[in-house]
């Protein structure tokens, strides 16, 4: 089953089977991390606002875990219950920037659910994000949505991730993708982290290349061709990282769509560059 859902498919779900449907609005940008005001002005019917900085990340440990460390099981469980999620629900996530933030919620919920908690979640990303919904001619709602508290259980730890030592060794065994903008990868511009450049051996694969000019993901065939051209070997492992682990989730989703079994380096370059003993490469 595809991890994507079209606006038309979601509209049908809302109309025919809304009982176990949960829609999450994950609006967040580096230059405007609080998307709540925009959410209140207009969101998908029944959508609950997700605070990425406080519900999809922990804080205070940039030197050891990067700017957006993965949330603890308790943090994510409390948040997911506030969103009204129960075991077996269909959860659809979206944002207003090509799903680069929403993919973080997708990755966390996909890899954190307690396997002993009954039916698993069906987690989807709204292809085309908020722009695609509006382009399809569907209406928005205003104001806050406060669902009944859910009963989802989040397990300890996350599957399909690597740590800083794994990232250092990864280019020797597979492909490590740096999905930041080319100028940050090359070390020409670094607005956020203490060092400029990239992890030695990493290949640049900017996140924007995963979608078309409408913000929809490229077809699986196009994505596979893109990653193969970048050197991803189907017979070897592949991992992605970004600045702080947010947009790298988007590329992990794109790799899954393309048929690759990808892992995520959550600490990403913000963790790597805060360790003085870790080398940094520059240029192509």
From TrEMBL:
Bias (Basic and acidic residues) ranges: 187-196
Q: Which SUPFAM superfamilies match?
A: Rhodanese/Cell cycle control phosphatase
**Keyword Kinase in record:** no
Which CDD domains does this entry report, sorted A to Z?
TST_Repeat_1, TST_Repeat_2
Q: What ranges does the record give for the region Disordered, renumbered to this chain?
A: 187-212
Stored InterPro entries: Rhodanese-like_dom, Rhodanese-like_dom_sf, Thiosulphate_STrfase_CS, TST/MPST-like
Does the keyword field hold Plastid?
no
Q: Which domain of life, per UniProt?
A: Bacteria
Domain called Rhodanese: residue spans:
17-142, 170-281
Which SMART domains does its entry note?
RHOD
Annotated GO molecular function terms are:
thiosulfate-cyanide sulfurtransferase activity
Q: What keyword terms does UniProt attach to this protein?
A: Repeat, Transferase
Which is a Pfam family this sequence falls into?
Rhodanese
Q: What is this protein called?
A: Sulfurtransferase
Organism (species): Nesterenkonia sedimenti
Q: What is the organism lineage in this UniProt record? A: Bacteria, Bacillati, Actinomycetota, Actinomycetes, Micrococcales
């Amino acid at each position: 089953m595809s991890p994507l859902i079209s606006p038309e498919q979601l509209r049908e779900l809302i109309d025919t089977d809304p009982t176990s449907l949960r829609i999450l609005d994950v609006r967040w940008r580096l230059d405007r991390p609080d998307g709540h005001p925009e959410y209140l002005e207009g969101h998908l019917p029944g959508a609950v606002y997700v605070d990425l900085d406080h519900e999809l990340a922990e804080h205070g440990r940039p030197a050891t875990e990067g700017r957006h460390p993965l949330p603890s099981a308790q943090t994510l469980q409390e948040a997911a219950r506030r969103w009204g999620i129960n075991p077996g629900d269909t959860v659809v996530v979206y944002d207003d920037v090509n799903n680069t933030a929403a993919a973080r919620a997708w990755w966390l919920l996909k890899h954190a659910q307690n396997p002993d908690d009954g039916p698993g979640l069906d987690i989807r990303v709204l292809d085309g994000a908020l722009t695609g919904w509006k382009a399809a001619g569907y209406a928005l709602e205003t104001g806050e949505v406060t669902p009944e508290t859910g009963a989802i259980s989040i397990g300890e730890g996350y599957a399909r991730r690597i740590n800083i030592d794994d990232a250092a060794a990864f280019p020797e065994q597979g492909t490590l993708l740096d999905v930041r903008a080319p100028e940050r990868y090359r070390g020409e511009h670094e607005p956020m982290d203490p060092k400029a450049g990239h992890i030695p051996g990493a290949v640049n694969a900017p996140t924007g290349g995963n979608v078309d000019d409408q913000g929809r993901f490229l077809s699986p065939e196009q994505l596979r061709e893109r990653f193969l051209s970048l050197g991803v070997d189907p017979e070897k492992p592949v991992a992605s990282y970004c600045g702080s682990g947010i947009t790298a989730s988007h590329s992990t989703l794109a790799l899954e769509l393309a048929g690759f079994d990808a892992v995520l380096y959550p600490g990403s370059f913000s963790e790597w560059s805060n360790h003085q003993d870790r080398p940094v490469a520059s240029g192509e």
